[in-house]
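pinned: reference chain
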Amino acid sequence: MKTMGEDKTLDLILRQARSHGEFHDRPVDVALLRAAHEIMKWGPTTANSQPARILYLFSREARERMRPALSPVNLEKTMKAPLVAIVAYDTRFYEFLPRMYHKPDAINWYNKPAVAEVNAFRNSSLQGAYLIIALRAVGLDCGAMSGFDNAKLDAAFFPDGRLKSNFLINIGYGTGAGIPPRNPRFAFDEQCRIL
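pinned: its C-alpha cells
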C-alpha cells in the first residue's frame, strides 16, 4: 500500500512531470546539481560502467559555442534556458572498470572500440534518464532533446574525441507556458508481452 507521500513523489518525478521549453529567469544552484548527482549515481549500468559525463553550460559564452550545433526548432529555447546540460559518454569508460567493478578483468570485455561505443551510448542514455528523474526530485524542471548536430557539438566541446555527446537537457524552473496537452501513452498490453 502506497502512502500519500509516495504518490506525490511519483507524480513529481514521472506521472505529472512535463518537458519544459520555457523557464523562469532564475539561476540554478550548483548545490541542486550535486544533490541530483547523489541520487542519479546509484542507477544501474552494465558492469557498473557509469560512462555518462555531464557538462553543465551556465555561461552565455559556453552556450554560444553550442549555437551552431542546434537545430532551428531548439535554438531559441536552449539559448534562453538558465542552464543546459550536455549528457555525453566516455568512449574509454572501461579504463575505470578495475576500480568501479568487482571483476577487474571486465576491462577486457569492453576495450574494443565497437563494443565500447554501443555500451557507452546505451548506458549513458540510462544515466541521462536517471539524471532527469533526479533533477525533478530536487525541484528542477527539464526539457530533454536530441535536435542538434552531434559532430558540431563534439567538435566544440570534446575535440579530442574521447567524449561524445548523447543528448541535451535544458534545466531550470519551468514556466509551464506552451506545454501542450499530455500526449497518450501505450497501455501495458500494447507495449508488453509475457511469455
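why pinned: The domain at 19-176 is CATH 3.40.109.10 (NADH Oxidase). Strands lie at 52-57, 83-90, 141-145, 163-172.
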